[in-house]
Amino acid sequence: MKISTIAFRNVFRNGRRSLLSIIAIAVAAFSITMLFSVLEGIKVDVRHNSWNYETGEVRLRHAEFDRYEHLNPVQYVVPDYAGIVERLQGQPHVWRVSPRINVPAAAFRDDRQIAARGIGVDLELERGYQDLEDIVASGRLPEPGTSEAILGHALARDLGVELGGQATFLTQTRLRTSNAFTVDVVGFADFPMAGMNRTAFILPLESAARYLRMGDGVSEIFVKSDNGDFEALTSDVRDAVRESGAEGLSVTPWTEVSGGWAYLQMADVVYNIMALVFFILGSTVVINTTMMTIHERTREIGTLGAMGMHGDELVRLFFAEAAYIGVAGSLAGVLLGIGVTIPLQQIGIDFGVAMEMANMDISSVLYPVLNLRSTLVVFVYSSAVAMIASVFPARRAAKLKPVEALRE
Amino acid sequence: MKHQTGRRIVATVVAGLAALLFVAPAPAQELTAEEIIERMEENQTHSTSIMEGRMIITDRFGERVSTYIAHTEGADRFLVEFTSRDEEGQRILRRDDNLYLYYPDAREVIRLQGSALRDSLLGSDISYEDMTGGRGIIDDYRATLIGEEEVNGRPTYKIRLEARGTNVAYPEQVYYVDREEFVVRKSEQFARGGRLLKETLILETTEQDGYIFPTHIEVIDVTRGSSGTEMIIDDVQIGVSLPANIFSLEELTW
Under DSSP, is residue A234 helix (H, G, I), strand (E, B) or coil? Predict the structure, then answer.
């Protein structure tokens, strides 16, 4: 009889114990599958939020703005933005362009000062840059050239503003003086990042330019490529800036400035360590099961040895048993992970309350993303760990002398 | 009523920058700290004035100038209208203890209260809170005469002011009051614990209609790390008749 056949039959000799091992491996594989899916979802989410609201895929700014960003240096602008946008749109890797004006703002209610941040956008270009309609929770987007604005719903609540009402903000101009302006609230926004809902509002670029005395300048220009090749895109943006003759501007890919990107780099390492710990915990059950099996079957091992089975064949036998258990557990865990992840890809996991106060690039509703490559890796890893875990006790069994084993 | 009287030098000056000061008839002898402060406050209180001036703000990004016309009445009412191109039409109204901001681009008047008063006026070294002072230093502070010092070649009384409560911007201040003219020549504002926050220097004064009037003042907010804000009065008319309701909210938005 083949060793693999004997091993397969042995799996069912103590069904409960085998099932326990399979469950342990399955739980580990399921957890890691879910963890990797959530991590992949966070990656996609951070990139989406960063590209749309924080850095663009590549960001064009005045170099001094970066240096003094903490001081809201509104005076450092990208000059003649319309000319630069036109040049950018002629570059091969540039897919979408979004000129923006950041509006540092404060509103006052009774004796409270409410900090806010306006984002002046070219509404036509922005509709191509991102799905702007997606953020509209109620009402509508502002019309270009008007004093209309759409407010983050939590900001509107703080200000006590109803749809159709107005809100007045104090701000700082490009001339480094103060100004205040009133917007008509035509909509409430539900930004993906909960923190933005407390502070952000979107208004037309032309209005922001007027309130902040920006002239032909904007605070920054976000650029997206059509294929995610940010290095080629960065090169294209630099070419466009050079051709425009503008000086003192900085062109930065999102990987250099996004806080979310840095977080992901760290998270990648941390989650891989967590995955390893899960596997090790799962494998201890396999080790335990194999050791108990060997202990219970010592006489049998002696009989097999007396009948001429060699040590390496005994190792292969126990290894094959562990392999069956490992593969079954891994397969069950991974399939369960896939089964749970698929609906969650649509439904999402709502961290709304937890993320309300967090100032992160991560959305309050997170959509896990199933990555086939990492799922396959989880399956192979968890099977392999279960098999490797069986080697040590199997080798110990192989060293037993048949005569001594038969005396047990 | 909220008293913020510890900041009256800047308050008076910015508020029309109108600290009109009587020329004291003779140097005082053996005055107590309270008496010196009272005489200084008497000198600062005047009926009405219109003045034109400029504010030169220097920070790490450079220098800029804002011009204004200020109308004042007594110690508690003023209306400042900015005339420089960058801030044209912006107004600040102080009525009693309330401060209102009007901006042509805004359809609402902003009433500053609470922590908002600590914000900087046009990015200068002067906070809105500095503009809310009036009479009544002795009500808010315990005054102690701690010595005499020369400031810009003028003999002064050095008076320490310690806040009686917490409803003032600065827990401790030191005033250097001119011994002969009862003008504040210099003042220092401190945080609790003694850290210097702000320093105000009267660099020039002028005499008009029997008043000694500060015409060049420098304020340095030490915490901002800036180079300071200078306020220069170019023209002043004292005891003029002001339009009716000039200090009303209705007039503010006109």
Answer: helix
A10-26 mean pLDDT: 83
The reply to whether A136 and A241 lie within a common domain is: yes
Same domain, A166 and A267: no
Q: In sequence order, what DSSP letters do the residues of B23-72 get, joined into one string?
A: PPSS--SS--HHHHHHHHHHHH--SEEEEEEEEEEEETTEEEEEEEEEEE
Chain A interface, best mutation among B108, B121, B126, B226, by max A CB count within 10 A: B108
Q: Which of A239, A254, A269 is the last residue of a domain?
A: A254
Whole-number Å distance between alpha carbons of A149 and A130:
17
State the best of A71, A76, A103, A113 to mutate against chain B, taking most chain B CBs within 10 Å: A113
The more confidently predicted of residues A402 and A237 is: A237
Confidence of residue B20 (pLDDT cuts 50, 70, 90): very low
Q: How many CB pairs under 8 A join A and B?
A: 70
A170 — contact with chain B (CB < 8 Å)? yes
Does residue B3 register a pLDDT over 60?
A: no
Domain boundaries, chain B: 5-252
> Per residue in A79-95, is it b (16+ CB within 10 Å) or e — as a string?
bbbeebbebbeebebbb
Count of Cβ atoms closer than 10 Å to residue B45 Cβ:
16
A174 CA to chain B: closest CA distance, Å? Answer: 10
Mean pLDDT of A99-116: 91
DSSP, collapsed to helix, strand or coil, labels residue A2 as coil
Higher pLDDT pick, B121 / B102: B102
For residue A50, the number of C-alpha atoms closer than 13 Å in the C-beta half-sphere is: 26
Q: Which domain holds residue A9?
A: 3-50+261-407
CATH level 3 topology of B5-252: outer membrane lipoprotein receptor (LolB), chain A (2.50.20)
User: Mean pLDDT for chain A?
Assistant: 87
Regarding whether A104 and A77 lie in a shared domain, the answer is yes
Quick check: A105 and A170 in contact, CB under 8 A? yes
